[in-house]
Each structure stands twice: as structure tokens, then as C-alpha cells.
Design goal:
nine-stranded antiparallel beta sheet; globular
């Protein structure tokens, strides 16, 4: 009797394969998507490590220095403003998040997350662990605090 391929794949999956699923984690003044469980961020991260809260995206602006960036949270667009491509260090697009506490609220509750960077719409991003990671980031970063109600 032969076992179906799907059953064989489940039986031979290693713990390392299971750990390869992306999830959001917090690490002090950073929160982001990690694939290895060791805190090495890939894809996107939020940080206040070097000053005001900033979103880092592993992307570029299609050859330009700057480009508009938006989160697509559960099908709704949240424009974040203009991101600047940084080619050095951990190259990617940096987007200032100062004054974006409401965007963080919506991001923390996301079930489906995509990004628009310039004219490029990305594939769906991981949301596992997102709310807890942003909660930890809020505790570490002044600029990530909940918005204050307005009258």
C-alpha cells in the first residue's frame, strides 16, 4: 500500500521547516516579520531604535529616491506618506511613522496585510503575532503610543 504524497510530506516535515513560517516578533525597540525565530527581521519591521518610530520595508522605489507607501489592511488602504529608499546598510524603504498611531492600531488588528510601495502592490504579508509585537513595541517606543481621543 502506498501513502499519499501529502501524508508523506507531513510525516517527513522537520521542526526547521515549521519554524520557517513567517511571524511578527518584538525585540526591544523593534517589531517585525521573522522567518527564523531568532529575531532576524525580513520583509518589514517597525523601529524606534534611532529616533522616531520608522517603518522599514525590504523593497525599493523602482529606481527613484522616494515613493508613496500605503498599507492595505483587510482590503482598506492606509496611506502612510512618502518613503525614502536607503541603499546602504539594511537597504530598503524607510517611512516615518510619527503621528501614525491610528495606522498602528489598524495594523495591529490586521488579518490580511499587503503593501503598496510606489506603483508595486506586494503579495500578502504575515500577520501571525502582529498584535502582540505591536503591543510590545508600544511599551518601548514613545511614538507608538495609542492615539489620544479628541473631543
Amino acid at each position: 500500500m502506498r501513502a499519499p504524497l501529502g501524508v508523506l510530506a507531513l510525516l517527513t516535515a522537520t521542526p526547521a521547516m515549521a519554524a520557517a513560517s513567517p511571524q511578527w516578533i518584538a525585540n526591544g525597540d523593534k517589531a517585525g516579520i521573522a522567518y527564523d525565530g531568532a529575531g532576524e527581521f525580513s520583509d518589514m519591521a517597525l523601529t524606534c531604535e534611532e529616533g522616531p518610530l520608522t517603518l522599514w520595508l525590504e523593497a525599493d522605489c523602482g529606481g527613484a529616491d522616494t515613493c508613496p507607501v500605503a498599507l492595505i489592511v483587510d482590503g482598506r488602504s492606509i496611506p502612510l506618506g512618502v518613503g525614502r529608499y536607503q541603499p546602504d546598510g539594511m537597504s530598503g524603504v524607510l517611512v516615518p511613522m510619527k503621528g501614525r498611531a491610528r495606522a498602528l492600531d489598524r495594523l495591529a488588528k490586521a488579518h490580511h496585510l499587503r503593501l503598496r510601495v510606489g506603483k508595486t502592490l506586494t503579495s500578502e504579508r504575515a500577520t501571525a503575532g502582529l498584535e502582540a509585537a505591536i503591543g510590545a513595541l508600544r511599551a518601548a517606543c514613545l511614538g507608538a503610543q495609542h492615539p489620544t481621543p479628541t473631543a
